[in-house]
Design goal:
disordered C terminus, 436 residues, two-stranded antiparallel sheet, single chain, alpha+beta, 48% helix, five-stranded mixed sheet
Length: 436
């Protein structure tokens, strides 16, 4: 084909107008020129500029301080445990509670109601928003359902009642268990609306199909052999045992006991979780109070030195106790920070506060290594050399275990060994001797 026609020449003014009309052009931004002195050098900063610069510097230091606080909290843990681990444990146990409760309700033995007296107040309804119906549903409490297993294939929704409404439903207490409250169980959840860890209190009320309590099956098992009479007796006994195990009351009793045991675990874990949250909050406040006067560079040095301090303490404890301590899994409590006896630059530290492992590590390590070194009978023990009275249980300064010298422990070990192998064969004695 023919080559394309050349573009017409455009003058400078036309090109400028075409660039202004182009929607994809780069927009110009206004550049504020800094004030300069008469000789062209930068002008001296004004009071407003200095104030703004100080505020920016202060915000930057505060941001760095908060980052260091968060990093320091990563090395710490409340004495009661870890929040994530406790929350996961409560969720797992709640799944079991939900499954056991579903089984009892599905069989028609009990009905469940959530008691709302101890739950947070409902938030007001949201303003109307555009939608299919043109209306917005009020913000209420999350529904409580029970279902078997982990996946929701089928579920039973529980109604919300107050204590007064529940008492009105049950009526006056009677001797008939079919119209009374059987028990209260607890299920854990994290309320997204209020951002709280909550326990849903579920009241189990007996229905008309509640099983009657029956006598436990305690018949002794007959002997099993090849005789026809004993075989028939055993089969009759086994049939009676299976019939009892498959009846309503034993099944209810088994599931109910498991339900109550698991519910108590959920309640205890939730209480421990709240204690941990309180302690973590106190740890954060104590940390802010402790390091508020520290400059950011010194605080950064302290945070960077924490792993080394943990390793040093772990090594000294390992040398003292002989127990292997993994410093990767160690966590700090506020007591460790207090025993570090830190002070801002230019402030004297308190000489009465020291880390026990750091202050006594070398001495205790040397004494422990000395005590593990056996001394001969000719050399005087350390206590005699220093002029002190010898230990009546260990006058010769021998190796000790639990405060007792080995010459006292060995006969005891020998007697227990002989007592344990009194009725054994020669091969059994040899095997046991090798394991010792």
């Amino acid at each position: 084909g023919a080559p394309p026609a050349p573009a017409p020449a455009v003058g400078g003014a036309d090109a400028f107008l075409a660039e202004l009309k182009n929607p994809n052009r780069r927009k110009l931004r206004k550049v504020v020129q800094k004030p300069r002195a008469a000789d062209g050098s930068p002008a001296a900063p004004t009071e407003r500029d200095e104030k703004k610069e100080k505020e920016m510097q202060k915000m930057k230091e505060e941001g760095e301080r908060q980052e260091l606080y968060i990093e320091l909290l990563g090395y710490m843990e409340a004495p009661n445990g870890n929040i994530e681990e406790l929350s996961d444990k409560a969720k797992i146990q709640t799944n079991l509670v939900r499954s056991f409760a579903f089984t009892l309700m599905r069989k028609g033995w009990v009905t469940g109601y959530r008691v709302t007296d101890n739950l947070p107040e409902e938030k007001p309804a949201k303003p109307a928003a555009a939608g299919r119906s043109g209306k917005s549903a009020p913000v209420g409490r999350a529904l409580v359902n029970v279902w078997p297993g982990r996946e929701v294939m089928m579920c039973i929704e529980l109604a919300d009642v107050t204590e007064a409404e529940l008492a009105e439903k049950i009526g006056e207490p009677t001797s008939d268990k079919r119209k009374t409250e059987v028990a209260r169980i607890f299920m854990y959840r994290f309320d997204q609306q209020h951002k709280q860890h909550l326990l849903d209190e579920i009241a189990l009320v007996a229905t008309a199909a509640f099983p009657n309590e029956t006598k436990a099956f305690n018949d002794p098992e007959p002997p099993q052999d090849n005789s026809l009479v004993n075989r028939q007796l055993w089969e009759t006994w086994n049939d009676a045992k299976l019939k009892y195990a498959q009846s309503d009351w034993p099944q209810f009793d088994l599931i109910f006991n498991k339900l109550m045991a698991t519910s108590s675990i959920v309640s205890a874990t939730h209480h421990q979780l709240h204690q941990t949250l309180t302690e973590m909050r106190a740890m954060g406040e104590a940390m802010h109070t402790t390091f508020a006067a520290f400059p950011v560079p010194q605080l950064r040095t302290i945070v960077e030195s924490i792993p080394g301090r943990i390793k040093d303490v772990a090594k000294k404890l390992q040398k003292q106790t002989g127990i292997i301590i993994r410093d990767e899994s160690l966590k700090l409590t506020p007591e460790f920070l207090r025993l570090m006896n830190l002070a801002p630059d230019g402030t004297p530290v308190d000489p009465t506060i020291t880390l026990p492992a750091a202050a006594e590590g070398a001495d205790s390590a040397s004494t422990s290594s000395d005590s593990l070194t056996p001394s001969t009978t000719t050399a005087p023990p350390p206590s005699l050399a220093s002029g002190e009275a010898p230990d009546p249980l260990n006058p010769l300064g021998q190796i000790t275990l639990g405060g007792l010298p080995f010459d006292v422990l060995l006969p005891l070990l020998k007697k227990s060994f002989e007592r344990g192998t009194a009725g054994a064969t020669a091969e059994e004695k040899l095997a046991r001797r090798l394991t010792l």
